Amino acid sequence: MNPFPKDYELVELFESEPKIFDEEVPWYYNNLFFSLKRNDVTLVCLLQPAYGTLSLHLKVNNSSIYDLSFENVVGMEIEKSNTKEILKIILNDEDTTKTLLLETKPNIYLMSTTDKSFRM
Q: Which spans in the chain are helix H?
């Protein structure tokens, strides 16, 4: 994945250290499990940066809302403003590039676009 956020940026975004598969392996080559809760909404994220894979699981009041898995992540960037924190996930689908925006602050929110130049 290129670009890819620094370790501390992911910790700030998800407001916690990830659970990792192997303590001896750098994060980029590891399995990272992040969990974030806002009110009744829980987001669980499994990230394997070196393989370009990402899984997202969202629950509201302990009811599963969605499970999404991506095996075509080519880059990730974190965008911050005074009121929002967003993880921009860039996906490559053969002939097009799609962008997922995962807002973690102030609310958990996911949006998709096919516009390559899309910016929040």
A: 7-14
